[in-house]
Amino acid sequence: MQKQDPNPQPSHVLTDFDVFLFKQGRHLDIYEKLGSHLVHKNGSPGVQFAVWAPQARYVSVVGNFNHWDQRAHVLSARSDGSGIWEGFVPGLGKGEVYKYFILSWDGRKLYKGDPYAYLWETPPQTASVTWDLSYQWSDREWMAQRAQRNSYDQPCSVYEVHLGSWQRPGDGRTFLTYREMAHALVPYVRNMGFTHVEFMPVMEHPYFPSWGYQVTGYFAPSSRFGTPQDFMYLVDQFHQAGIGVILDWVPSHFPTDAHGLADFDGTHLYNHADPRQGFHPDWKTYIFNFGRNEVANFLIANALFWLKYYHIDGLRVDAVASMLYLDYSREDGQWIPNKYGGNENLEAIQFLKTFNTTVYQQFPDTITIAEESTAWPGISKPVHEGGLGFGQKWMMGWMHDILRYFKRDPIHRRFHHDELTFSMVYAFSENFMLPFSHDEVVHGKASMIYKMPGSEKDKFSQLRLLYGYMFTHPGTKLLFMGQEFGQTREWDFQSELSWDLLRHEPHRSLQHWVRRLNFFYREQRALHFRQFSHEGFQWAIGDDRNNSILAYFRFSDQPEDTLLVVCNFTPVKHPVYDIQVPFGGTWTQVLNSDHIDYGGSMQVVHQSVPARRLYRQHRPFGITIAIPPFGVLVFKPEAHTLILPKDPGREQHWLSQSVRNAAALARLS
Q: CATH number, domain at 537?
């Protein structure tokens, strides 16, 4: 793990070697050279400015300090052909508002915010602000343990949050501050049992309805909620509570706002000039020119910046599919093929490989996660093995299939059983995260609770079932805020969650269920130890489509950790249901979604059932259980009663072919 100085003091002098690295696209901390920095020069305090604007005819710094006079503080162009303009303004300090005045090659007068600014004015104001990043961190224990916390064999349950609408202050102000959220959000996430929180983009964005996905200030947390130090405090508090922090990161596109990256020096500096390559037709935004070294450097350095200065534990990369395909959301004639005639964006592919390689080289204890919705192979495969190098990938196919299935009337579900089982065909082709994100509860898609058919009671029963299936399915987990207590309306970024619903028992009980699932996922090694491996899963019953029942095993490296999960996707109770199991002894029910504590009707009470010998070739034991309607049950063999097969050869065959559980084989031999 990279050692990190809590108060780094880099040199801000731009050297020839810095310029060389920047032009090569390999300056990993270029943000310490470009932008605005509080320095002492020749014994005088002031601010050192540097900006990349290669086609500009003239550049100066303007602000309140010089009455926005374009001639007062002129920057000098370096003589090395880098296109970098620099200069020192004495007497300036922290908190000065400024922009760059740029005279373009064709005589236009542009006023631009600083691409590398650490702080911006609060929108709708659009100027940058001189600032520093000094902060005394108190998360040493977390940082020392982070490699273990983020490892593939550990639980990862993510609570996705939009900071502007989780809660509102209720005192006339629009938003809670970062520090207020630290004292409200942190204990809530900890109490709910989530291991990580994921923030929708916190980087400065002028248009609040973009939810943060149209970024102008890539190096600045939004000033709507406070200063950089306030955001550091929020991250620090999460870490002290044992919770990791993941940021949404948006390298796929940027907005057309006049004060931002668009037309920065009078040219398409950060994007392709040809709109078939440089303009996104869906979002009406510009697409980064990933093949330009300085642009790729800007983005990769930005990713490292958040990991270094803000101790961020992971980056979820937005809209990866839009980066990979040149014809993404385009018709014939609206895109330009690559040099081989294909639709793959070779420059973006190389950028993503470089991004992941660099992140894991510099911060090997962090994680990168791809939001990628296609069947592109090897998203989470290492770069040296031909993949893109992400740590995890959102399992969008599973999400779409399972939501489509749950929307169906239960009487018809038996005709669509493959929508339940198909995910296991490809479940281990990537390191998958199972997401129910903000995108699933907006734009007329309905809230999670109202995706469920039937009466209110049925809706809550099925949502408990859905979450139970999710948390026992291989892969890490993500829930969007409000889903944990069954918010009834769609997410609205302009108002806080419907916390008043927790006055009603069904919502409180659902929240209690999600909390139990989080802690159950963390407690049971079989649910996370091999969550990305076929060795951690096997069907017990995958083909009972007539009853719409699934049963499957989850394994760790010890037989006594084995779990049997049984899901009933119809309102029909099954008083007697037989399942073959690998081990003898007593199998005890350790989780029941129908329990009264979670809002259930207790149609099936606690069960401890002895396994009987079946003398079958692969599974030599069997149990008989009762299954509640719309229920998920989990059974575990009691360790002190565990009976391994008398014929270990048969059991070894079953395990080696179906589970390949090396540790269990050792126990049986």
A: 2.60.40.1180
